[in-house]
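Can't paste images in this forum, so I'm doing it all in text. The chain is below; anyone willing to post the predicted structure tokens underneath?
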Amino acid sequence: MSEWRSSEAARGLALVGPTLLYAVAMLAVPLGAVLVYSFLTDGYLTIIPEFTLANYAEVFSDPIYRQVMARSLGVALAVTVATVVLAYPVAYFVAFHVRPERRSLWLFLITIPFWTSYLIRVFLWKVILGYNGVVNATLTGLGIIDEPLTFILYNVNAVVITLAHAYAPFAILPIFVALGKIDRTLLEAAQDLGESRLATFLRVTLPLSVPGVVAAVLIVFIPTVGDYVTPRLVGGPEGRMIANIIQLQYLRLDNYPLGSALAVTAMAIVTVIAVGFVLSLRRYLRVRQ
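Text version of the structure:
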């Protein structure tokens, strides 16, 4: 026993132990509680400790919940595609066209949005996209439109625009790291063999940067599905997402079991999509190799 206590494994466990306990207490226990609640029966202002699958049956049978879940996944997919597509050129420019001594400055500028509160940034987009906001005022002043646009606020479009801006740094940084690890001699060799710049990018740079793209996709997609603040402030009735419905069940209707079933269902769907995406991409890359 004394030998085990002095071993490297014991020292490692002592170092990891507090963090592990903290993670279990702050993450595993709440998730476990939500899972348990999802199988209980709702009573008015109380929870009846009776096992039931009625909550999950309602989640999958009610057209409103199915519609909101599909909208949440659609918004998350749109935000992910827009964010990664716009973030890749920025990361590519910083990795390949900015001098090494100035890259730190560019990364510093990219992270500036983190200096302000997420809530403030959402409110700023509400001002920009509003009926009398910056966009409409500019377009009206230039004579491009006669009346302010109404489809850019309090709907899904506003949610996608706001979330794409909010999560842009999360997509730029992992792609930049992946691009920075690419051996430049491989690119030179491809061009020496007669490949054009475009062919070199498609056949060498892009495949080698896939790990960064995958990380960016997961970092953006997973939290976007459960975003609550942005749909609440700029989405309006047409832009509500699953997190807003969960909040409604918990705090307004006091239906903890149904709210928990919605949360567990959303987490399960996101997990299946994320795992399926990673496995499909790995299989595709293995086939190409």
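The chain has one domain: 63-288. Strands lie at 41-43, 46-48.
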